[in-house]
Design a protein that fits this description.
The structure is a homotrimer of 264-residue chains. The model of chain A has no long low-confidence stretch (mean pLDDT 94). Chain A has 264 residues and is of the alpha+beta class. In chain A, 21% of the residues lie in helices and 31% in strands. In chain A, the strands form two sheets. In chain A, strands 8, 9, 10, 11, 12, 13, 14, 15 and 16 form a nine-stranded mixed sheet that branches. Chain A has a seven-stranded mixed sheet with strand order 2-1-3-5-4-6-7, with helices on both faces. In chain A, helix 1 packs parallel to helix 4 and helix 2 crosses helix 3. In chain A, 52% of the residues are buried. Chains in contact: A-B, A-C, B-C. Chains B and C meet through strand 1, strand 2 and helix 2 of B and helix 1 of C.
Amino acid sequence: MAKIITLLTDFGLSDGYNGIMKGVIWTIAPDVSIADITHSVSAQNVREGTFMLQKAAPCFPAGTVHVSVVDPGVGTTRRPIAAHLGPYFFVGPDNGLVTALWQWAEDRGYETAFVHLDNTRYWLEKVSNVFHGRDIFAPVAAHLANGVPFASLGSPIHDAVRLSLPQAQRTARGWRGLVNIIDNFGNLSTNLNHTHLKDIKKPRFRIGSHHIDGLVETFGDCKPGEVVAVFGTTDDLMIAVVEGSAKERLQGGGGDGVEVEETL
Amino acid sequence: MAKIITLLTDFGLSDGYNGIMKGVIWTIAPDVSIADITHSVSAQNVREGTFMLQKAAPCFPAGTVHVSVVDPGVGTTRRPIAAHLGPYFFVGPDNGLVTALWQWAEDRGYETAFVHLDNTRYWLEKVSNVFHGRDIFAPVAAHLANGVPFASLGSPIHDAVRLSLPQAQRTARGWRGLVNIIDNFGNLSTNLNHTHLKDIKKPRFRIGSHHIDGLVETFGDCKPGEVVAVFGTTDDLMIAVVEGSAKERLQGGGGDGVEVEETL
Amino acid sequence: MAKIITLLTDFGLSDGYNGIMKGVIWTIAPDVSIADITHSVSAQNVREGTFMLQKAAPCFPAGTVHVSVVDPGVGTTRRPIAAHLGPYFFVGPDNGLVTALWQWAEDRGYETAFVHLDNTRYWLEKVSNVFHGRDIFAPVAAHLANGVPFASLGSPIHDAVRLSLPQAQRTARGWRGLVNIIDNFGNLSTNLNHTHLKDIKKPRFRIGSHHIDGLVETFGDCKPGEVVAVFGTTDDLMIAVVEGSAKERLQGGGGDGVEVEETL
């Protein structure tokens, strides 16, 4: 089986912290392939991190170990954890970062299990208060990729922190949702998806004071500057400005409401 | 033979899209090595992308599959293609992104062949309208690296889109060329190269209203702030400001004219 | 043994230069794993580069070849060198970039050896004046990872350039040190460390006109906006602003003085 570890953090790319984690991983598991998902999660934004992880993780092969470190509580009493979520493993802080991937696994009927990483045998010998990515998460992930059983990593727990991620709400003629994440291009990705929209004829979308009639198939069909609704990379409803930024145009931000209703 | 895939896109590094492509590739071809060339091509700038690909691709070993995605037409009728260009493969949109590498291969007398990627067997099962990098190009590249014959990927075509890349023009006493790309340091890389300059004695360069007398061997020989002409990383004539930015100083931009003439 | 090469440069990520180095490496040594440490060293800042290399390099397995290119003198008479520093190899320009890792090796009693890379057999055939990372350092590192003996790479030298890195100075009641590097979050990492502080009871720190009483264990214990002293990722004394930037708040820069004294 392929041995793959992914890294998702808010460390940025300039200080070498992700390179350091690779060094630790390859010291323990020299034949692992490592993919950076992103190191540009907004600083300490666990909510953004959980959505980004959920978007990328399921594209990896079964057995992949996803190391995610957005960790405002590093060095405090927050627990280091690992999760077994169907085909994937998660290693990171117990602060809700795993939530969206956990939900994804449950939605597909996968079994899930969690451990508190309290078996120090799989940590580096010396553990700092500021960089558990290097000292705990990277080595644990490497041992896991090497075949160390999940259950050996620590004590089973059943109370891992789970963020409350708002679900779309039914309205009289449609659904009310929220912007979950905003990408690099300023596209607003919402918690509405294909499932919510499949029975709505002639949908009209409202975000702030802006209305959009109908869904487009692809940006290529539209005029530059047009505000459109389109399905995104994971069947999420996305509000976008063609060759522009919906974030700037609509002043959208995490948490902004988006409504859809049938106009037929 | 080494199995190597490179990625060049305009996705940026913050949203995890390149990580997602790696997940797809490793699901199909777990033993492939993947190199990011860059994910910072200016948004939808196919012309810049083709130059950057051409600059990097020939440094890779024979058999490397270069996946390039600068794709304003994603989801429209623009075709997904693959090209066999001497020692390399290209996989990406049919929008001219392959042009400079194609030209490179022709200049060296390599055989070239193109297919329309219409064999859906090598795609992901579900294809979105917004992310062919994940759904078509990454899986096709992985299968190609796995040894799937090029000809199996789709129907042969002979009309792949080719950008018209301006060639340097002869003038009375020299050549007239153009700035092709501007790098991170503000250096202006032109379509003039060693071939154009080898017979010009005591060259004088003109860019906008600025004159430069002679070529320097290396930045190390010059004074900070000096505007110089120097051969770049691929024998391209480069206009640079020592420890500064020629882009800022000369207000250079893609398409700016550069002339060289003999002053002897 | 694992074959690992790391890259640390000031090239940035947008121009594809680090991808090009990977292509060269994999052409010579197809089974090497390559980790980017960082490509965001401040342009031509050798001093910053040496600290960043020293911070990351020792996290890699024995035998790792560290290629580092911050190289204002490229194309001049500055020598290309390689160093054998205990468990690690360094390949790069002879401008002091190796200093902090060299010091690290000496502090641990490792043997050290240097060669001038004058055996052109391990270079690319054609060498430019502007990109020795591609033409000399990447191919030499690949051959080294392939098992070419260190001594074959060139002539032994005993006068490699060594930066004078200021050491902490004893004061009447403590130590006077300096800010070495500033990270992405604006944290100020100093040349004071655990060794200097272990015998100081109730330490008080001074940086510019700012005083800090005591060391904190972890950011999680502090109030947002608080200026704190804390041990960093390598036991370095770090001055930080909780959920903020010490760089902005204290106007700190490379070279700023930091003092600690006992207040008991």
